[in-house]
Amino acid sequence: MERAAVFDVDGTLVDTNHLHVVAWWEAFRQAGHHVPMHAVHRAVGLPSGDLVAHLLGDDRDPDQDADLSAGHKALYGQYFDRLPALPQAGELLRRLHRDGWAVVLATSAGGAELSALRRAIDADDAITATASADDVDAGKPAPEPVEHALELAGVPAERAVFVGDTVWDMRAGSRAGVRCVGVLCGGIPRADLEESGADAVYADPAHLLSALAGSPLA
I need a surface site. Which of 6, 40, 152, 168 has the fewest CB within 10 A? Predict the structure, then answer.
């Protein structure tokens, strides 16, 4: 395979962003922090440590960071057996695989969470590799997650497309030198995705699949 389709997972292929928002909101609340849900939503997509720093600032007690992340992980874990794939997410990956793309997931999830996400997508036969945040020193919006995905696929940046739902995804893909496709199903406005580097924007995986012939993944 000489080209790679790299996909973010949460909010892009699986409808989990608002579950993350609720889990983070509750974890912050239990720790005595009152963070508005809309602010949490805008931060979803950052690695856990970066999300906490982004929302609480440099004057927070950093000794709390690990407990906050653990609280979120425990609260979010209650949804693992019923995570919902977005419409036609699996069909999109299988179509790209048939068309000769190396399909690589680039996600901050790992372990049981990643397994739950892959079960929801139900397209393991189409997935070439998975790049997780554990594999790199810096998560999105740094380019390393996308660059690592390209290394796994053995494909140069100019032969790759990155699909994601957040501004952090678009910035990471742009910094890695790949074309970026945004989807709106994560709840981030089209204008924000385009401003952050999206070459094209679609409603969700089903919309991208239906418009594949005219997309950057043609």
Answer: 152
